[in-house]
Design goal:
Elements (H helix, E strand, L loop, with lengths): L8 E9 L2 E9 L5 H21 L7 H6 L10 H16 L22 H12 L8 E6 L2 E5 L7 E6 L7 E7 L1 E8 L19 E8 L2 H14 L3 H5 L6 E6 L4 E3 L7
Antiparallel strand pairs: 1-2, 2-3, 3-4, 4-7, 5-6, 7-8, 8-9, 9-10
Length: about 260
C-alpha cells in the first residue's frame, strides 16, 4: 500500500485469471476496510465465473460443451447467450472484421465460435460494478485498462506501450473514466486474422483505442488491426472512440480526437 502526497491511500491486488494477470488499483481514504476487501473479492469472483463459462482452453467450460453439442443455449448460463449476441452485434458494427463465429481451430479442425476477443473486455467491465464507486480504481487485464476517478480524487494517467522498444511508453493519456484497449503482435505474435481472407493483416504493428466502454474499445482495436492499412480511416468514423495506430515501419498516426499529453 502506498500513501501519495495528495493524501489518499492507494492499494493494489493482482490475480491470475483467464490466463493473464489482472490487477486492481484502488485509491481512497482507506482502501483496507472489510467492505473494500469484500468488493475486490467479489470482483475477482466475477472474473473466475466468466472463465468457467467462456474459457476455450477448458474442456469443462460451457462454451466448450456448447461447441461439442453437449449443452444447449437454453440450458446454459444465460451469460453465454448474451455474449454470443454481443459477438453478433460486434460483427455488424465492424462490417465483419470482428467475427467470433468462424475462427480457425488451432488444432486444425473446422472453424469454430470463439468469443475470447470480446469476453475479456466484457468480463472486466461487468465485474467492475462490484468495485466501490466512492473510490478511484484502475483495472488492468493484460494491458487493457478501465478506470474510474470520482470527484476529489485525481485522474489516472495511462501509457500506451511502444511495440518496438521494451519498457518505453509511446503515448500517455489522462482519464477520469473510460477504457484503453490495445491489439497487436508484440506480446502474442500473429494471432489476429482478417476474417474476409483468413490471412494475417499487413501494414500494422499495433492499434490502441480509447473510449467509454472497454468491451467496445477492445472489439474496435481488434477489428481495426484486422483491417490492416485502412485501420485509421475506419477508426475515425467511430462515435465516441479514438484510435492510435503504429505501422509496420514504426510510424505513429492517430485520429483527430486522440488526446495530446
Amino acid at each position: 500500500m502506498t500513501v501519495p502526497a495528495a493524501g489518499f491511500v492507494q492499494r493494489a491486488w493482482v490475480e491470475q485469471i483467464m490466463g493473464l494477470p489482472i490487477s486492481v488499483h484502488l485509491r481512497g481514504a482507506d482502501p483496507a476496510t472489510p467492505a473494500v476487501e469484500a468488493a475486490v473479492t467479489a470482483y475477482f469472483a466475477e472474473l473466475r465465473r466468466a472463465d468457467d463459462i467462456f474459457s476455450t482452453y477448458r474442456a469443462d467450460s460451457e462454451i466448450s460443451r456448447w461447441q461439442r453439442g453437449e449443452l444447449t443455449l437454453a440450458a446454459a448460463d444465460p451469460l453465454l447467450g448474451r455474449v454470443l449476441a454481443s459477438c453478433d452485434q460486434a460483427f455488424v458494427r465492424t462490417s465483419g472484421f470482428f467475427d467470433a463465429r468462424s475462427l480457425p481451430d488451432p488444432l486444425g479442425g473446422a472453424p469454430r465460435t470463439d468469443p475470447s476477443g470480446l469476453v475479456k473486455g466484457w468480463a472486466v467491465e461487468r465485474a467492475a460494478r462490484r468495485l466501490p464507486a466512492d473510490h478511484g480504481w484502475c483495472v488492468n487485464a493484460g494491458g487493457d485498462v478501465l478506470v474510474h476517478a470520482p470527484d476529489g480524487l485525481p485522474a489516472w494517467r495511462l501509457g500506451v506501450e511502444d511495440p518496438m522498444r521494451d519498457d518505453k511508453i509511446l503515448r500517455a493519456v489522462t482519464m477520469r473514466r473510460g477504457a484503453l484497449a490495445t491489439s497487436g503482435t508484440r506480446h502474442r505474435g500473429t494471432h489476429i486474422v482478417d476474417p474476409h481472407t483468413g490471412q494475417p493483416p499487413i501494414g500494422l504493428r499495433q492499434v490502441s483505442v480509447l473510449g467509454p466502454e472497454l468491451l467496445w474499445a477492445d472489439v474496435y482495436a481488434t477489428a481495426a488491426f484486422a483491417r490492416g492499412t485502412s485501420a485509421l480511416e475506419w477508426l475515425a468514423t467511430l462515435d465516441g472512440y479514438e484510435g492510435l495506430v503504429v505501422t509496420s515501419e514504426g510510424r505513429v498516426h492517430s485520429t483527430p480526437g486522440w488526446p495530446i499529453a
